[in-house]
Predict the structure.
Amino acid sequence: MAHNLFQERMAFVGEVPWHGLGKQVPATVPAETMCECAGLDWKVEKKPAPGARLIDPKKEIYDRYLILREPVDPEKEAVALGMVGRGYEPLQNRDAFTFFEPFIENGYAQFHTAGALGNGERVWVLVKLNEQIVIKGDDLIDRFLLLSNSHDGSGAVSIRFTPIRVVCQNTLNYAMKRSSGVISVRHTRHIAWHLANAQAEELKRIIEKTFKDAETLFGRMAMMEMKAEDTESFLEFLFPRTEKQKRDKTEPERWARIRSILDDPEVTPKSTRTTLWALYNAIIRDEDYRTSREAGSDARLERVWFGRGHDLKLKALNACRARLPKAA
């Protein structure tokens, strides 16, 4: 299952996703309905792991626990998603969706996609904010927030800035103060309360400021012209040639794909084609849509949002920052 979607289900607003799976819902869908349509209206619970050591008999506290997903089919058994310590507290899927309710209700955002990966161990909710970032002419960026929650104990609940370039649907990255999260909430006691408490106007202020900073950065990138040798140097940094390629004066296949994206008027606007901004987008476009050797075990969505693709995008963005002249 190359897409790695849990139960081959997800919910989406607008166009059918690239993998052709999921249930289409209206843009005004409420949180509870979005959760149900995404196939995420199930709960997880924490139970002592087999062989766990009882460390507090009075409170019945053990040193290790399993996170179990209730079966989608009532005739089947619960599924173990991961093992955690005694301080871990799961966040239920409905609470993850509820986090966005105030933004949905006041028209500041709308649900876009939601689903889970694997056996349900990683859940995501993507919402689209109103207004766009204008880089130059018709080169526009849609603003998204991506909430991800791991039920296997592998990480905290995080909410990331995830801008998407309208012209060719590149999933860009914008790191705030070297961190990819707007907020990060650990799986500790009262996690749902702590997540809900982050919905204050202060969070909206942070969101607007961060996207304004992204607009400034992307705009500066669109003003920086790149000569042929500049492009080669940038590609060499991200995707170094082998010694044999250097001797033979050949280039990696990835370089050729990126150059072809730069030359394609359907995905690279003429107004910014020779800029650092265009090169960055070509690199991201290639990463988002390339065929991966890992497709059998590490699906595209997981790779570009959470795995190696995400790491590459941050590396490319930081390389762009380093090449820009210092702001006056």
User: Anything to note?
Assistant: Residues 55 and 276 are 57 Å apart (CA to CA). The mean pLDDT is 86. The first strand starts at residue 5 and ends at 12.
